[in-house]
Amino acid sequence: MSPVIRPRRLRTTPAMRRLVAETTLAPRQLVLPMFVADGIDAPRPISSMPGVVQHTMDSLRAAAAQAVAAGVGGLMLFGVPRAEDKDATGSGADADDGVLNRALRILSDDLGDATVLMADTCLDEFTDHGHCGVVDGRGRVDNDVTLERYISMSLAQARAGAHLLGPSGMMDGQVAAIRAALDAEGFADTGILAYAAKYASAFYGPFREAVGSSLEGDRRTYQQDAANRIEALREVRLDLEEGADMVMVKPAMSYLDIVRDVAEMSDVPVAAYQISGEYSMITAAAERGWIDRDAAILESLTSIRRAGASIILTYWAAEVAERLS
Ligand code: PBG
């Protein structure tokens, strides 16, 4: 037995493998999600996400500057209000002095256009019931009432200096509503990174702790069913028609087929969000010595890129950016 054709030839040395690598991973493609909490005077560890913290304003500024110096492509901010500041409609979300809007203003002052500053445009961090929208008398999330709240929240974030808004609540018509409001108020240059295909996922578990969410029940009346693929394409098509500047698939690793499908149909950049549970799984297995942490991180990010995402939101963005450069 002596094969003539030997694919292994292209794997013989590290230099050869580097030469023929089809997929690249660069710091600029990585976006760091960050949590900033109100009413704390030291960064607070998130126990289910070892290595990730809820920041104070000061620690946020330092970590953001460090991530930008490492070359990340952008920062995605989440606000964590004090429990007593949460209410049924998420008033803290559009208050100019709400924790997220204050943080955006500070980072915008610090960093200017040196990075792309993004904000989570969703109510769940700010509502006392933990849903992404306003709940009606029958306990259902009211789509159109929620859109009014998203509009107000978007304008507050645009005023605070966000370059890109990330509507993540999966309400129908959210991109069109936000786009129209931004344009009417003079924010034509503020972009929308649409969470276009966002699935109801068990892997969001650690995020609920990260933002102190009080959600009981689930988000299955607005987030997508893991069983569905065609539905994701429809959601993406609608968001593109409504004016999304980028579209996102979330979570990433269990939905690489969707990332691939979306990359093939989208004519705007495609992002994928490697979410909290994905971070925690790799971290936990590595802590037990069951997998090689650094290799697993790089492999997971390379796979998401290979599936077709040009932008990846990952809690390892700063660390990996440093390692790559
Ligand atoms: C909603 C939002 C969530 C995440 C990002 N934006 C939570 C959810 O939809 O349940 C999850 C991110 C992660 O798990 O890392 N504001």
TrEMBL record:
Active site: 198 (schiff-base intermediate with substrate), 250 (schiff-base intermediate with substrate)
Keywords, in A-Z order: Heme biosynthesis, Lyase, Magnesium, Metal-binding, Porphyrin biosynthesis
Keyword Magnesium attached: yes
Entries under InterPro entries matching the protein: ALAD, ALAD_AS, Aldolase_TIM
GO terms of biological process kind: protoporphyrinogen IX biosynthetic process
E.C. number(s) listed in UniProt: 4.2.1.24
Reaction(s) this enzyme catalyzes, per UniProt: 2 5-aminolevulinate = porphobilinogen + 2 H2O + H(+)
Pathway of action: Porphyrin-containing compound metabolism; protoporphyrin-IX biosynthesis; coproporphyrinogen-III from 5-aminolevulinate: step 1/4
CDD domains, per database record: ALAD_PBGS (cd00384)
Sample GO molecular function, one term: porphobilinogen synthase activity
Binding site for 5-aminolevulinate 2: 276, 315
Gene Ontology annotations for the cellular component aspect, listed alphabetically: cytosol
Domain of life: Bacteria
Binding site for 5-aminolevulinate 1: 208, 219
Binding site for Mg(2+): 235
Gene3D superfamilies (alphabetical): Aldolase class I (3.20.20.70)
Family annotation (PANTHER family): DELTA-AMINOLEVULINIC ACID DEHYDRATASE (PTHR11458:SF0)
NCBIfam families named among the record's database cross-references: PRK09283.1 (NF006762)
Similarity field: Belongs to the ALAD family.
Assembly behavior: Homooctamer.
Protein's job: Catalyzes an early step in the biosynthesis of tetrapyrroles. Binds two molecules of 5-aminolevulinate per subunit, each at a distinct site, and catalyzes their condensation to form porphobilinogen.
Protein name: Delta-aminolevulinic acid dehydratase
Species whose genome carries this gene: Gordonia jinghuaiqii
Gene name in the database record: hemB
